[in-house]
Amino acid sequence: MMEGHMFGNTMWAGHWLWMLVIAIIVVIPAWRICQRTGYPGWMGMLILIPVINLLLLYFIAFSDWPADKTGVRNE
């Protein structure tokens, strides 16, 4: 159907830029939430992986936060 079309097998370059912007918008708050709860900030990167992102949310919501135990916030 699109054999003769110039963009038939490629993705629009703006698509990758848009995906990068969305990833940044999602990762920054997740990184900060992980830091404030006392977990390493890099755990916020897990929010980009399907299914793992749901497990991360449940883990943060229902686990004991290290920041609560020490009374110190990592900001």
Distance between the termini: 54 Å
Q: What percent of residues adopt helix (DSSP H or I)?
A: 40-55%
Order of helices and strands: HHH
Largest sheet: none
Enumerate the spans where pLDDT stays under 50 for 5 or more consecutive residues. none
Number of helices: 3
Number of strands: 0
Average pLDDT for all residues: 84
Structural class: mainly alpha
Q: What's the oligomerization state?
A: single chain
Count of the separate structural domains: 1
Rg calculated over all Cα atoms: 18 Å
The best one-word shape is elongated
Keywords: Membrane, Transmembrane, Transmembrane helix
Transmembrane segments: 12-31, 43-61
Protein name: DUF805 domain-containing protein
Organism: Marinobacter adhaerens
Q: Can you put this structure into words, describing what you see?
A:
The chain crosses the membrane at residues 12-31, 43-61. The chain has helices spanning 13-37, 52-62, 66-70. It is 55% helix and 0% strand. It contains three helices and no strands. It has one domain (13-68). The protein has 75 residues and is mostly helical.
Topology:
Blueprint (H helix, E strand, L loop, with lengths): L12 H25 L14 H11 L3 H5 L5
Short description:
By secondary structure, the chain is mostly helical. It is built from three helices and no strands. The chain has helices at residues 13-37, 52-62, 66-70.
